[in-house]
Design a protein that fits this description.
single chain; about 400 residues; alpha+beta; D-amino Acid Aminotransferase, Chain A, domain 2; 8-stranded mixed beta sheet; globular; binds pyridoxal-5'-phosphate; catalytic activity; BCAT-like_C; Class-IV_PLP-Dep_Aminotrnsfr; Aminotrans_IV; pyridoxal phosphate
């Protein structure tokens, strides 16, 4: 045991028979037996009889828990264990129906094997970008707009995709086919790749592309939600405008909202202008019936918001709206709006009726929000073929 003032040394892992367990459990450096010679502690343990290798600490010291037993699994045991973590369902009932990995250059159907290496820089350095595609009634909606943003984010993050754009598009379509899904979402990632745990991209590795097809139903959102202003700082524009895997600020701001009983949160920048939500943009309807969206250059301006700017023009024609524009919107002006909504591809419109405990407008879903939601559903379900890429199953 370490004496006061002495550094605490790591324990020697106890890997042999109980007879040697009376030896001191603290020494330096820690010593390991080669794995193949490891034997169960205390004879047969609580673990399955198939399991031969168990690491544990010797009993009888204060600092390290002698009940800690760490099995060392074989490849087949790992797969068995991982499979046990999945919901007890058939593979075709699991929400993750198919994954493409450029590492193997093909599609994986078993959710247990839908994994990426721990040394992939997207995992340990956040050096990766991503995007999504909405699969609805056998068509991918607005796929080109998402691919444009994906490649823009990749270039801003200095990651060169391993395939040209048309190949990526082809992979996403084949993934939809392999998943057999008609409705769901497809998520895809580009990473600087596996190879080491350094900061800059691994030298002898090519960037990796991964994609997953997920079963999901989409329903129109007909209820308004509550939001709060988050205390988590906004991302600087350089990072806010690219869709990278660095979502920690987004996660914390969403959690903050949930902790306070709200659905989600709103970022306000250091100049007092509203920015966006953690995974969606925001739009407002002023009392003068203008549709207002925050300026696109400081936020992740979504494909849905771009489409909204076009679709909403139809409402100017029939007198529901007076104008549609993007500009700086102060938090006071935003809170005084007649209507407010979240805008994002997998929603696509969600009414917001309460902000920081005060109603937006009269606290009900407004006429313009309903009309915009109608326009989107029509566009997604039966709208222009230009925005739909049909999957040939
Ligand atoms: C931070 C953030 N802003 C905005 C959006 C909306 O983008 P889109 O409409 O392309 O889904 C998202 C979507 O994931 C997002 O994560």
């Amino acid at each position: 045991m370490a004496l006061p003032g002495q550094p605490t040394l790591p324990p020697t892992l106890h890997t042999s028979s109980p007879s040697s367990s009376s030896s001191s459990s603290f020494s330096s450096p820690p010593s390991f037996s080669p794995l193949p010679s490891l034997s169960p502690l205390n004879g047969s343990s609580k673990h399955s009889s198939k399991q031969n290798n168990v690491l544990g600490f010797a009993a009888g010291h204060e600092k390290w828990p002698s009940e800690l037993r760490i099995p060392v699994y074989s490849t087949s045991e790992v797969i068995e264990k991982m499979r046990g973590k999945l919901p007890n369902k058939q593979v075709d009932e699991h929400p993750y129906r198919a994954m493409y990995s450029s590492l193997i250059g093909g599609i994986i159907l078993d959710p247990t094997l839908m994994v990426i290496p721990i040394d992939d820089h997207m995992v340990h350095r956040g050096h990766g970008v991503f995007d999504t595609a909405l699969l609805i009634n056998g068509c991918l909606y607005d796929m080109d707009s998402h691919l444009d943003r994906f490649l823009k984010s990749a270039s801003a993050a200095k990651i060169s995709p391993p395939y040209p754009r048309e190949t990526i598009k082809g992979i996403l379509l084949f993934l939809a086919v392999a998943s057999k899904l008609k409705t769901g979402s497809i998520r895809y990632w580009l990473s600087s790749g596996p190879g080491d745990f350094l900061v800059s991209p691994p030298r002898n590795s090519t960037p990796t592309f991964y994609s997953v097809a997920i079963a999901k139903e989409f329903n129109r959102i007909l209820e308004g939600v509550k939001v709060i202003t988050t205390t988590i700082p906004t991302k600087p524009p350089k990072f806010a405008t690219m869709k990278t895997v660095n979502y920690l600020p987004n996660v914390l701001s969403k959690m903050e909202a949930e902790e306070k009983g709200a659905y989600s949160s709103i970022w306000v920048d250091d100049q007092g202008y509203v920015a966006e939500g953690p995974n969606c943009n925001i739009a407002f309807v002023s009392k003068e019936r203008e549709l207002l969206l925050p300026r696109p250059d400081k936020i992740l301006f979504g494909c849905t918001s771009k489409r909204l700017l076009i679709l909403a023009n139809k409402l100017i024609g029939n007198g529901i709206l007076k104008s549609v524009r993007t500009r700086d919107i102060s938090v006071e002006e935003a809170k005084g709006s007649a209507e407010m909504m979240f805008v994002s591809s997998l929603i696509p419109i969600m009414p917001v009726v309460d902000w920081d405990g005060k109603p937006i407008g009269d606290g009900n879903i407004g006429e313009v929000t309903r009309a915009i939601s109608d326009l989107f559903w029509e566009d997604i379900i039966s709208g222009t073929q230009m925005l739909k890429t049909e999957v040939t199953y």
